[in-house]
Write a structure and sequence with these properties.
It is built from two helices and no strands. The protein is an all-alpha fold.
Length: about 60
């Protein structure tokens, strides 16, 4: 995986570039919106897996 090759200096440079692109004032709002989006995605994926029937072929309706 490409991200496995990152060391400390790469992370520092990456964080500096992100800080330059977004600015220090917008980073808290950006992280809050990303966390909220991840929370919604996680809740929706849990609800989707709870709504789907089991993958047991015996419980599936027969094909026509």
């Amino acid at each position: 995986m490409m991200l496995g090759n990152l060391n400390g200096w790469h992370l520092v440079i990456l964080l500096a570039v992100i800080l330059l692109l977004f600015g220090a004032t917008r980073l808290p709002a950006l992280s809050k919106s990303m966390a909220q989006s991840m929370r919604i995605f996680k809740n929706e994926s849990r609800a989707d897996t709870a709504d789907t029937p089991d993958s047991d072929p015996a419980s599936a309706p027969p094909l026509r």
